Amino acid sequence: MTWFWLTLLAMLGWGVEDVFLKFGAERDDADAQYKIAAWLGAIMGLSLLLLFPLSESGLPLFRLVAGNKFFLLVPLAYAATMVLSNVGLRYLEMSIMSPVENASGAFPMVIMIVYFLATGKISSIGDELSLLDLAGTVCIIGGMIALAVVQRDLFHRGKEIRNENTRYRFGALALLFPLIFCFGDTLDTVVGGIMLEEDSIGEIDLFRLYCLMFLVVGVASYLILVIRRKKIYHLFAVREMPKMAAGVCETAAYVAYIYALAARPLLVAPLVSAYCIISILLSRVFLKEKLRISQYLCIAVIVAGIVLLGISEGVAA
């Protein structure tokens, strides 16, 4: 049952992070995504140092990298797609961004089930998932997809209630930003889940590799900032504190997520994607983004799925 609470912790962390990201993405700042990436890189880089004593392998970083050099492309792609996704923060409400990004929850579980069946890791879906698990997963995936469709339709029809200062420069094309992250997140979840399930790497060692790639992207983003602005970017300026808070939330959430993923890779992927519920609700409270009845209905279906998964684990225990 521990995996379930770790998953909820990751959901909370990422939901709160979304709000801080939105606060930190000023609409008139074309470099906001690089600033966010620089902060994420800084915090992940610090985590890289702090986590070394907890490493399962005890390997120095260069040896850990050498043994997993091809896998490094996955966290690098994940970090890079996050930068691209953050561009969309200036042109879309978070209540649209988060559900579209988290539609990725539907893909990793399907891909991992196919992989585990093909490799003989499981002989049938029933080996891994109970009826309650399946019902909960269907609710979560179905609710997320429905929520993404509702948000898309509201966007296209121009019916969502917008802040008067919001500008949709790219129109419907702005949805490409969260969709890019959706595909990057799918790749990340599938490969990470398979590696953890097959015990080819420990949870902390996996996170160290992610920290390293976030650090690389963060340093690259900082250099881009310096080149574009022709001056030093001060990370610790007061107006940059929301970006720092977002970085802390991302780091904490990812640690919880990796441990949960190692325990139940097929269930954690769709469940953790439901953190868009938290993003939407917090956006309503702190960002003053308003929801419609159809959105609340979708959220209710997703919550029902989470409850079913919790009941299933309680019965299994």
Output the keywords.
about 325 residues; mainly alpha; globular
- Rounded to an integer in angstroms, the radius of gyration calculated over CA atoms is 19 Å
Sequence stretches where pLDDT stays below 50 over 5 or more residues:
159-171
Number of strands: 0
Report the sheet-strand fraction. Answer: under 5%
Helix content: over 70%
User: How many helix segments?
Assistant: 13
Listing every helix as H and every strand as E from the N terminus to the C terminus, the arrangement reads: HHHHHHHHHHHHH
Main β-sheet description:
none
Please characterize this protein's 3D structure.
The chain has 317 residues and is mainly α. The chain has 13 helices and no strands. α2 packs across α10, α5 (94-101) runs parallel beside α8 and α10 packs antiparallel against α11 (265-272). It starts with a helix and ends with a helix. Mean pLDDT is 81; it is low at 159-171.
